[in-house]
Specification:
- The structure is a single chain.
- The radius of gyration is 19 Å and the shape is elongated.
- Helix 2 packs antiparallel against helix 3.
- It has a 4-stranded mixed beta sheet, covered by helices on one side.
- It starts with 22 loop residues before the first helix and ends with a helix.
- The chain is of the alpha+beta class and 174 residues long.
- It has 2 domains: 69 residues, NADH-quinone oxidoreductase subunit E (Arc Repressor Mutant, subunit A, Orthogonal Bundle); 79 residues, Glutaredoxin (3-Layer(aba) Sandwich).
- Strand 3 and strand 4 form a beta hairpin.
- Bound molecules: FE2/S2 (inorganic) cluster.
- FE2/S2 (inorganic) cluster binds next to helix 5.
Length: 174
């Protein structure tokens, strides 16, 4: 894999006037989270979880605010947030489709299912439709190999998927 050099120094951070880390959130962290950790840095993950839970992704402005609150450099918080693929640094669609690509699902047709979703929605894994409705991802085993192929749409697990029946699921979400 080739390294891709990004001009991070020129990145523009979208900002809003109202902070993401509100006074209410800070008070909650001070009372409920920080006492459980030996240092403020050690509380980075629960702070990021709460921010994502509240805003459905973690804007860069929120990363900076979390860093100031934790007393660390923004780069340290960004390193953590970008390391775990469960954290979203960009807004995701209303419906997050995660197609399982592990062995059982792969053997039972994950490839044609993924191709159909890609062509129907016009996006590749990791992308979101321009209307913000769907984000497509691939995932490792969803824990339901006996009913492969499987996909998750938000918190709903679809099992024994065929290209046609999942097409109808997508139509119902349009
Ligand atoms: S391999 Fe897809 S659910 Fe386990």
């Amino acid at each position: 894999m080739a390294w891709i050099a990004k001009n991070s120094a020129g990145t523009q951070i979208e900002r809003r006037e109202q902070p993401y880390l509100t006074d209410e959130l800070k008070a909650k962290f001070e009372a409920e989270v920080l006492p459980r950790y030996p240092t403020r840095l050690a509380a980075t993950l629960p702070v990021l979880h709460e921010l994502q839970h509240r805003y459905h992704y973690i804007p860069y402005q929120a990363i900076e605010e979390a860093a100031a609150f934790l007393g660390v450099a923004p780069a340290q918080v960004l390193d953590t947030a970008s390391f775990y693929e469960e954290f979203w640094l960009e807004p995701k669609g209303k419906y997050l489709i995660m197609v399982c690509q592990s062995l059982s699902c792969e053997l039972l047709g994950h490839g044609s299912l993924l191709e159909k979703i890609k062509s129907k929605l016009g996006i590749a894994p990791g992308q979101t439709t321009p209307d913000g409705r769907f984000t497509l991802m691939t995932a490792e085993c969803l824990g339901s190999c006996g009913t492969a192929p499987c996909a998750l749409v938000n918190e709903t697990l679809y099992e024994n998927i065929s290209v046609d029946n999942f097409d109808r699921v997508l139509d119902s979400l349009q």
